[in-house]
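Long-time lurker, first post. I've been practising inverse folding by hand and with some scripts of my own, and I keep getting stuck on stretches where the structure tokens seem ambiguous. Below is the full token string for one chain I'm working on. Before anyone asks, I'm not after the true native sequence, just a reasonable design that respects the backbone. If someone could post their per-position residues I'd love to compare against what I wrote down in my notebook.
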């Protein structure tokens, strides 16, 4: 009984921490472009300090935009600021 309770609790945790969206490829590209724009705004808001991590996020999103647009990627996951999984057509 304890094992099933623990399993149910972990499934609830997964549902809370990760969202999954099904969308058309064009909508996924728009989603990614909006995410890239948000990271660029975050870099602009940081007056000083290291923005290397944010820059890498932007670069990976830009590569992902090209792959999704070309139809080479149909499912992807972004972990920041919240974990989302996108599945395209």
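-- Answer (accepted) --
I ran through it position by position. Result:
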């Amino acid at each position: 009984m304890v094992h099933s309770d623990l399993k149910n609790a972990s499934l609830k945790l997964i549902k809370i921490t990760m969202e999954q969206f099904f969308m058309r490829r064009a909508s996924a590209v728009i989603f990614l472009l909006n995410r890239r724009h948000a990271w660029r705004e975050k870099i602009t808001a940081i007056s000083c300090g290291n923005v290397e991590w944010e820059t890498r996020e932007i670069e990976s999103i830009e590569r992902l935009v090209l792959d999704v647009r070309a139809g080479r990627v149909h499912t992807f996951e972004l972990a920041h600021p919240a974990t989302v999984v996108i599945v395209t057509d």
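A couple of notes from the structure itself: Residues 25-45 form the longest helix (21 residues). The chain has one domain: 25-88. Happy to go over any region you disagree with.
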